[in-house]
Design brief:
116 residues; 3% strand; 61% helix
């Protein structure tokens, strides 16, 4: 088996969470066709259906296993991100920005003034 493609698993998760391909597409900022193609790719990769297309939409046993794995990995990523990026900065954050002279002379300083 080749490695899992998490963007495909994310689409499967979204379809089951939203109970609708169109709403899943909106939640992932994709087209409905892109969601359908991702589900189709997953089903081709595993050579069996992952969704029971009924009302409500259900995952097949293999679909349930893949979703459980995806959700565990997603949770681990969220926990790691929380550990790596503190919720509140310890002091001012310094950033460097390159701006051309025309922008600096016209709109840039007024645009960032509220953040300074």
């Amino acid at each position: 088996m080749k490695g899992l493609d998490y963007k495909l698993l994310r689409a499967l998760d979204a379809v089951l969470q939203e109970q609708n391909f169109e709403r899943a597409a909106r939640s992932l900022h994709l087209t409905q066709s892109a969601i359908s193609q991702r589900i189709k790719q997953l089903e081709q990769q595993f050579a069996e259906p992952l969704l029971i297309r009924s009302q409500p939409l259900l995952a097949t046993p293999l679909g349930q296993k893949l979703l459980a794995h995806y959700r565990q990995v997603h949770q681990l990523e969220l926990e790691l991100a929380g550990e790596l990026t503190p919720a509140t900065p310890q002091g001012p954050i310094r950033i460097s920005i390159a701006v051309n002279a025309d922008s600096l002379a016209t709109w840039f300083l007024p645009a960032i003034a509220p953040m300074l």
